[in-house]
Amino acid sequence: MAQRPYGIDPDVMDAIATELKEVRNLGCELAIVIGGGNIFRGVAGSARGMERASADYMGMLATVINALALQDAMERVAVMTRVMSAINMQQVAEPYIRRRARRHLEKGRVVIFAAGTGNPFFTTDTAASLRAVEIGAQVILKATNVDGIYDADPKQCPTATRFSELSYIDFLNRHLKVMDSTAITLCMENALPIIVFGLATRGNIQRAVCGEPIGTIVH
Predict the structure, then answer these.
(1) Rounded Cα distance, 40 and 63, in Å
(2) Full-model pTM
(3) DSSP class of residue 119?
(4) Which one, 7, 9, 124, 211, has least CB within 10 Å?
(5) Which pLDDT belongs to residue 127?
């Protein structure tokens, strides 16, 4: 979205696609869970009086739009992708099947998971944790608009302190809002580390993949 109030910024999309290509060229298997808050956020719709399940389904459909846009941007830089949706819409995406997703990764394709878990009342964070566990991922890289996890909102509190690392229990006890507790608990139960970092800095995805100390690691 960049500085736009709504929708997709093509320059940002192209920059992300190029960076993902560089990471893929390192030999990494990449799977991407994409959100839809730039188009519609289910929780926000519910807060304005919309029935929560309907709002969540609308949010899931927004993620499919973003997934198709990212697929187009990546294939324009010669990266083969597959969009897999948790909600069946076979004209535009494959249905999510775990074994098929793993096979795509083995063949060198980048897999983009859309429509969350396919169920209302679950966030995109939970979808990312679930898919990561299902495909046997080594780490979740959560790219955000801040450069890690802070003890307060850095946009509102200039003295907020960034953590370099946190345990799962510390994260839950501090009631931090970067990811929801369901997602963190699922990662904790499966010993799956999470790296939270800023997406705006060019090259940060590759730095995270290569083990450079950026952002915050939750483990």
Answers:
(1) 9
(2) 0.94
(3) S
(4) 211
(5) 97
Instruction: For the chain, report the end-to-end CA distance as a whole number of angstroms.
Output: 30
Q: Which helix (H) or strand (E) holds 73?
A: helix 52-75
Four-residue CA torsion sign, 68, 71, 73, 76? negative
Beta strand 216-218 with 194-198 is antiparallel
Query: Which helix (DSSP H) or strand (DSSP E) does residue 197 occupy?
Result: strand 194-198
Contact 196, 216 (CB under 8 A): yes
- pLDDT tens per residue, range 54-86: 999 999 999 999 999 999 999 999 999 999 999
Domain 1-137: give its CATH code: 3.40.1160.10
- Residue 138, CA atoms < 13 Å, CB-side half-sphere: 7
